[in-house]
Amino acid sequence: MTDIALQAVELVRRIEGDVSHTLVNGIDLAVKKGEFVAITGPSGSGKSSLLYLLGLLDAPTEGEVMICGQPTSKLSESDRADVRLTKCGFVFQFHFLLPEFTSLDNVLLPMRAAGKMGEKEMHERGLALLGSLGLAEHANKRPNQLSGGQRQRVAIARALANRPEIIVADEPTGALDTKSTEQVFSILRDIADNGQTVVVVTHDPALAARADRRIHIVDGKIAEITERGESKQVCEVAG
Amino acid sequence: MKLLFNIAWTHVSTRVRQTLVGMAGVSMGVGFTIMMAGLMQGSQIDFLRQLVDTMPHITIEDERRSVPTQPAEQEYGAVQMSDIANVGKRPGIKYPESVMGSLRAWIPGDVAPSVRTTAIIDHGGARIGITLTGIDPRREIHVSKLASQMRDGKLDDLSRAPNGVLLGEALAEKLGVKTGSTVLLIGGQGTQLNSTVAGLFRSGLKRVDESQIYSLIGPAQVMMGQSGVINQLRLRLSDPMVAQKVASQVEAQTGYKSVSWQEANADLLSTFTVRDFIVLTVMGAMLLTSSFATYNIISTITYEKRQDIAIMKSLGMREYAVRRIFIIEAIIIGVVGILFGWLLGYLLCYGWSKITIFNPLTGTTVPLQIYYSAMHYVIAGGISLACCAGAAYFPARKATRVHPVEIIRGAS
Fold first, then answer.
1. What is the distance in angstroms between the Cα of A194 and the nearest Cα belonging to chain B?
2. Which of A84, A90, A100 is facing B14, going by the closest CB pair?
3. What residue in A sits closest to B15 (Cα-Cα)?
4. If you average pLDDT over residues B104-130, what whole number do you get?
5. Which residues of A touch B6 (CB under 8 A)?
6. Separation CA A51–CA A81 (nearest Å)
7. H/E/C letters for each residue in chain B?
8. What Cα–Cα distance (Å) separates residue B354 from each residue in A211, A225, B41, B43, B347?
9. Which residue is closest to A91 within chain B, CA to CA?
10. Is A35 in the B-facing interface, judged by CB distances under 8 Å?
């Protein structure tokens, strides 16, 4: 069990309202440490909703998300925030950097919020992270002085800041050109190869093909799981 | 905390114009509150000082607060007597010197004897009813500010002029007399006394200046028709504020009615209480209103920054930490605003103190009295800061409650 970084058990997310609808409808999933998983699916299939549940950004209506074997459904909102801070790193389609802060300060933000390291140590780690993503000379620039690809790389550096077990990325290349997309994807690939778990939602089949495992979601359910190179049909998808 | 402060500082320092408006709001609220407090308390203290300076702090009179009980009433429960003429009771305080001696031993101040009676002052047919107080000039200087209120002549001149009297300027003007003129005093029992105006004083209180005259103790006793009587002891305390307490102690010790200046002016003082209440309400409203600018700014910032809020929450910052950012922003605005407000308040007070007004009652031009007190600054600042923090709390709470997923979905 110890090599399972992230596990979903009969995960359901329903939105109650005048017309209630189910975003995620009973998903079972286990992601190993160091695995690179791509979640694909048509728009509105619930892939982003699944990702938010896996990253503890949202709470499931039913079922359980286990992070490193630890169940999370009973946690309070602020305890979930603590788990997010230390165990999960987020990358979104839009970089979502704080516009008034430099790249370095943005990377330092989660470390400062966690408050576990000294200022000097945080600075060194922040600069090292930016350097490893080829942004050493952009450390003191603000987001609006950077290109889209650079911003997304700063966002990845921020996601990595607290050495999380899991990196969760929601269409991280959705707003990028081909070259930047390629860069961002190789970075995520490297992260997984270094032993951190990466879960990515993407539209791009070429990129999904480079993941260790591809999970295709339709209508909130897993329709198909493709291990690298082979394909396994889980259930028949209508239409 | 440093991180939150950093973010807060970045937010306010990148919105110079909005922040300045907010600070100006707080500054004005604090500044005008300080000015009002200084002005109101200044005028009040000035008035009280005049009152306290003019009047003895405690007056002991030869009266009892209630009619003395008759021996028969004490003896038999069924007996009740009324309308008894107090025949044969000699007016005045018994053994005034020994009473004064025993009072001097413990009161924080001094005491002087006097004789108080009513009389009519007559000059060339103009007759005015007055209160005549016979004083001992050597002791009087310890219990009243009369010596410093003299406008013409000196207190000692009372002893030099034959049957000398001191008149208030207002009364002298009414009668058309000046120092050296002769006036006629007519007592209650028909006694008439030719007196010389030995000097003029002005206390600043119209009712005193128009109806109070002073003489030596002797002539006052003559006017009263009781030689050797002392019917009033007047006390002056080093701290006028303890008069009430001392008065009740004196009354318990001597059995004579002791009236503190507060009791004598209870009606005026209760007006002050109402005035204080009104002023406090207005000042509170001013401070509260000034914090609305802060409310607006924090509302705007939280609205503009809802994406940042979502990000910070999604990264794992707790809701209260994010909320604190905006409260810190309000406090930054508040603190800087308050500092400028203090400056503004001081300058306003200073400016007002340069303005002189004509007082028709005393006929003088006096500067506006401003009371400077660090308390005004501390209280105005404290309330204002609390209002700012409160004004920020509600928009911040609303904004930080939003679930990050809602914002993130909306953005993509």
1. 22
2. A100
3. A100
4. 90
5. 105
6. 16
7. CHHHHHHHHHHHHCCHHHHHHHHHHHHHHHHHHHHHHHHHHHHHHHHHHHHHHHCCCEEEECCCCCCCCCHHHHHCCCCCCCCCCCCCCCCCCCCHHHHHHHHHCCCCEEEEEEEEEEEEEEECCEEEEEEEEEECHHHHHHHCCHHHHEEECCCCHHHHCCCEEEEEHHHHHHHCCCCCCEEEEEECCCCEEEEEEEEEECCCCHHHHHHEEEEEHHHHHHHHCCCCCCCEEEEEECCHHHHHHHHHHHHHHHCCEEEEHHHHCHHHHHHHHHHHHHHHHHHHHHHHHHHHHHHHHHHHHHHHCHHHHHHHHHHCCCHHHHHHHHHHHHHHHHHHHHHHHHHHHHHHHHHHHCCEEEECCCCEEEECCCCCCHHHHHHHHHHHHHHHHHHHHHHHHHHHHCCHHHHHHHHC
8. 81, 87, 17, 14, 11
9. B315
10. no
ipTM of the shown complex = 0.83
Is B411 in Cβ contact with A98 (below 8 Å)? no
Tokens 């990050």, residue located: B404
Give the largest Cα separation in chain A, rounded: 57
Please indicate if any CB of chain B lies within 8 Å of the CB of A110: yes
Do the chains contact at B408 and A88, CB–CB below 8 Å? no
Amino acid identity of B332? I
Give the chain A residue whose CA is nearest to the CA of B411: A94
In this prediction, residue B87 carries a pLDDT of: 56
Q: Is the pLDDT of residue B412 over 70?
A: no
Residue B293 has pLDDT above 70, yes or no: yes
Cβ contact B3–A109 (<8 Å): yes
- pLDDT over 70 (residue A11): yes
Q: How far apart are CA B164 and CA B175, in angstroms?
A: 16
Backbone angles phi and psi of B301, in degrees to 5: -65, -45
Q: Domain map of chain B by residue range? A: 2-52+268-411, 58-76+90-260
Tell me the torsion sign for CA atoms A63, A66, A72, A77.
Answer: negative
Alpha carbon distances (Å) from B364 to A115, B246, B359: 69, 35, 5
- A109/B312 CB distance under 8 A: yes
The yes-or-no verdict on residue B409 having pLDDT over 70 is yes
The reply to whether A77 touches chain B by the CB within 8 Å rule is yes
CB count in 10 Å sphere of residue B216? 19
Average pLDDT of the residues in B357-369 = 74
Interface size between A and B, measured as CB pairs under 8 A: 75
**What was the pLDDT predicted at A2?**
56
What is the reported pLDDT for A188?
87
CB-nearest to B412 from A78, A82, A92 is A92
B194 touches A: beta carbon within 8 Å: no
User: Which CATH number is correct for A4-233, 3.10.450.50, 3.40.50.300, 3.30.2400.10, 3.40.630.10?
Assistant: 3.40.50.300
Does this model's pTM top 0.90? My answer is: no
What's the DSSP call for residue A233?
E
- Does the beta carbon of A107 lie under 8 angstroms from any beta carbon of chain B? no
Q: Tell me the average pLDDT of chain B.
A: 86
pLDDT band at B344; cut points 50, 70, 90: very high
> In chain A, positions 151-180, which contact chain B (CB-CB < 8 Å)?
158, 170-171, 174
pLDDT at B397 over 70: yes
